[in-house]
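Hi again,

Forgot to attach this to my earlier email, sorry! This is the prediction with zinc ion bound. I've pasted everything inline since the attachment limit keeps bouncing my files.
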Amino acid sequence: MSLTVTGATLDGEAVGLRVEDGRIAELGGEVTPRDGDEVIEADGSLLVPGLWNAHTHAAMTLFRGYGDDLPLMEWLEKKIWPVEAKLDADAVYWGARLACAEMIRTGTVGFWDMYWQPGATARAVADAGLRAVIGAPLIDGGGAGSDEKLAKLKADIERSLEELAGAKELISEALAPHSIYTVSEPSLRWIGERAGEAGLPVHIHISETEQEVANCVAAHGVRPVAYLDRCGVLGPRTMLAHGVWLDDAELELIAERGATVVTNPVANLKLAVGGVFPYPGARKRAVALALGTDGPGSNNSLDMFEQMKFLALIQKHTAADPTVAPADDVWRIAIGAASPLVGANGKLGAGEPADFLLLRSDVPELTLGEATADLVYAASGAGVVDTTVVAGKVLMNGGQVRGVDEIRERVVERAKRLGIA
Ligand SMILES: [Zn+2]
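Structure tokens for the complex follow:
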């Protein structure tokens, strides 16, 4: 199947783009449709790479608005965990479908997910047409390791990989140890070995709270990043979510190992973690970076445009310096251009995957000003994204995601069954 976009605007120039077999075949001023092509007349819309949400728990759309404004542990223990104990694959599927619909609508083409029932999320992603890197949360209770914990963890890993084995080609697997405080040291070491052997990425929460750092130093004598490194989990395929409480030595080590930090500014602010990801230090050391929402239960939005603005603002404010985190840098992070782990690294060109957006140029917020700054500081996803294309497939055109009414209905039914709606 082939697709041609005509009359788009790229960096101020009029361009066309032709897609064959999921990849960009031609991009430039002279592109014309061929017989049989699906054609989109872009009418001056801005052509940009799609956004990547590099840390989320998609199916937690089910929990959006359920237990807001509570302390983290109270929210988890009293609200989330009791309901998660009753979740089945069907609920996860529809929760993830709702997340995908919101992502498509707001210009996200792919995401890194950590959630229960990974096979259900994979089916939802495949049905929605997005890309995803999916891992089931791996948890063994933390603390001292034991043979039983390790045996259970090994079985959990294999079950999760099995569930994802038949996943469609736009989906890949990760090993997702939940955190250093919910997974024991022998299990973390095993995850490092298993990931290395299978060439799989590792996706883990790290240094989200100051308490986590203090507990790690007390238990292991080193801060969390050095501990991860000692366990063999820190490498170029490691996605470190949060990294709020990283010191300079940890940033050095992350840069040296080539791991990526995915910052989640909105979720950190909403849960009041008390610190801010040290962006200036990370940038100085050329740490690979990505941007995420975290789960829609604790953000609560999946709109990456909102995350971009928050990232820029919180960094400027914390540094008391408006030159920190300029719009161009933030945009590069959000399209995956600042991490080798994220999508096609934000590239648009012949031979690259055909993942792109057409943004309305006729909206007030994009009328004047430099385009990237408008996107970071003025735009919202639902306000500007007209068309979302992933692997050459048009997932949205004209700002409406197909089938969203049915998805909304199904999600409400599942939430009612779980007693949370
Ligand atoms: Zn998370």
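The first strand starts at residue 2 and ends at 10. The chain has a mean pLDDT of 96.

That should be everything now.

G.
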